[in-house]
Amino acid sequence: MYPVIEYENTYKLEPDAVFLPGKVKAIIKEVLEENLKGQTYKANLMASRCMALSDIIKERIRQLEMPRFKTVVLVLVGENKAQALSVASQCLWNKDTDNFASCEYSKGNLHVVAMAFGVYQE
């Protein structure tokens, strides 16, 4: 069995790096285009597709190495039938350290909205 490692508090209140919404948006766009190219809306497959897309996006964001940021990724998939779609979110966070990025993908009858939130963990 491995020994339990206990870390001391750093009392660090400011991040070394900031959440990069421009780079995160580019990651989201790239993931959506790679994984949804040529796809159509199929209701029975969309739940697993949302989970897979959010996992891929989260892993790629982690590669940006933004230490002490918690990443929350939401992916919403719907059937595009020429209707209006609005997505809103509300968070309690520190405006100086926390941020988000979002991107939409729409082809044929498939419409996807993906959002990634970066929240600094003190």
TrEMBL record:
Family stated for the protein in its record: Belongs to the dynein light chain Tctex-type family.
GO terms for molecular function, please? dynein intermediate chain binding
Species per Swiss-Prot/TrEMBL record: Elysia marginata
Phylogenetic lineage: Eukaryota, Metazoa, Spiralia, Lophotrochozoa, Mollusca
Q: Which PANTHER family match?
A: DYNEIN LIGHT CHAIN TCTEX-TYPE PROTEIN 2B (PTHR21255:SF7), T-COMPLEX-ASSOCIATED-TESTIS-EXPRESSED 1/ DYNEIN LIGHT CHAIN (PTHR21255)
Q: What is an example of a Pfam family matching this protein?
A: Tctex-1
Q: What is this protein called?
A: Tctex1 domain-containing protein 1
Q: What Gene3D superfamilies does the annotation carry?
A: Tctex-1 (3.30.1140.40)
Membrane-crossing residues?
none
Q: Which InterPro entries match?
A: Tctex-1-like, Tctex-1-like_sf
What is a biological process (GO) this protein takes part in?
Answer: microtubule-based movement
Q: According to its record, what are the GO cellular component terms?
A: cytoplasm; cytoplasmic dynein complex
